[in-house]
Design brief:
By secondary structure, the protein is of the alpha+beta class. 55% of the residues lie in helices and 14% in strands. It has a seven-stranded mixed β-sheet. Residues 46-137 form the Mce/MlaD domain.
């Protein structure tokens, strides 16, 4: 008799398989299976070789999404090819300072960031592998151009890479003319080296060098004594300046002492002032004493008259004794007195 299958066991097995499949999908998706994302498109002007599907999209070094697909489109009207790169960006990649997601803030929404200058460019992940990634940053100074060929998707303007800028500059160079100029310079240099002018110039340079050496030796011989003399003169000047400084110090000290002595409140000036006052007083007294109507002058006149009479009497006595020496013994004769009268 054939055994019948247990429906409960079969259902449990199927449910477990589905749970395992979901867990595997969640693990493979990095826990982002139910994350809220935004899709955007970018148009790069150069080659995108090395940009694989799944390449990281970073904002200032922080991964915020990945490359979803890279396509090539043809525009029949202009017969131009374009390479749109579709990316998937995580809305919750940017967080506030408190750690909460900033995806609900209009200022940080993808269209607002594009208006604020969000630009994309290709950068090198590794020089060894040559793989590229998409680098996002705010570059409001760069020009913005949009193609608008994908309604419903936010288009992020792109910037040229450093390699693309260098390639554009190299493409703008006229290599042929540059090579011709280098060849002409090389030919001119070769002609100068092979010509006689270079040898003559070298000989002239050698002669000039010899002359300069001779002049230098002569200057060295002559400058030695001059330097010694100048050094001696400087020494004498220094000594004279020191003596002059000492003399100036002495004059300054004397001036200070004289200034101290001649100060209005100094003892010397006070003594001189007192002496001058005394001299003035003495001169005034002498002036009063020598006046014509003063008693001193009158007494002096009388004294002079008395002295004059006394002198005359002495002179008469001397004359009498000279004529009559005996008068010392006898006295003067009356007739002599009368005759004198």
């Amino acid at each position: 008799m054939k055994r019948r299958a247990n429906p409960t066991l079969i259902g449990a097995f199927v449910l477990g398989a589905l749970l395992l499949l979901g867990a595997a999908a969640f693990a493979i998706g990095g826990g982002r299976l139910f994350a809220r994302t935004d899709r955007a498109v970018m148009h790069f002007s150069g080659s995108v070789f090395g940009l694989p599907v799944g390449a990281p999209v970073v904002f200032r070094g922080v991964r915020v999404g990945k490359v979803e697909s890279v396509e090539i489109r043809h525009d029949p009207s202009s017969d131009q090819f374009s390479i749109p790169v579709f990316v998937e960006l995580d809305r919750g990649a940017i967080r506030n300072l408190d750690g909460r997601s900033a995806e609900d803030q209009p200022r940080l929404a993808l269209p607002a960031l594009v208006e604020r200058g969000l630009r994309a460019k290709l950068s090198m992940q590794s020089l060894l592998t040559g793989q590229l990634y998409v680098d996002l940053d705010l570059r409001p100074d760069e020009a913005r151009s949009r193609r608008g060929a994908y309604p419903g998707l936010v288009e992020i303007p792109t910037s040229e890479t450093t390699i693309q800028n260098l390639k554009a500059q190299l493409d703008g160079l006229d290599v042929k003319r540059l090579v011709d100029d280098v060849a002409a310079i090389a030919a001119s240099a070769r002609a100068i080296v092979a010509g006689p002018q270079l040898g003559q110039a070298l000989n002239d340079l050698q002669q000039i060098t010899a002359n300069l050496r001779e002049v230098s030796e002569q200057l060295e011989r002559r400058l030695g004594p001059l330097a010694d003399g100048a050094q001696g003169a400087l020494g004498s000047t220094d000594a004279a300046m020191r003596r002059l400084g000492s003399a100036a110090d002495g004059v300054r000290a004397s001036a200070e002492r004289l200034d101290t002595l001649l100060a209005p409140d100094s003892p010397l000036m006070a003594q001189l002032q007192r002496s001058a006052e005394e001299l003035a007083t003495a001169a005034a007294g002498l002036r009063r004493a020598t006046a014509e109507d003063s008693s001193l002058m009158r007494g002096t006149d009388r004294t002079l008259q008395d002295v004059s009479r006394a002198a005359r009497a002495v002179r008469e006595l001397a004359d009498l004794l000279e004529r009559h020496p005996e008068a010392l013994l006898r006295g003067r004769a009356p007739d002599a007195e009368e005759s004198r009268r």
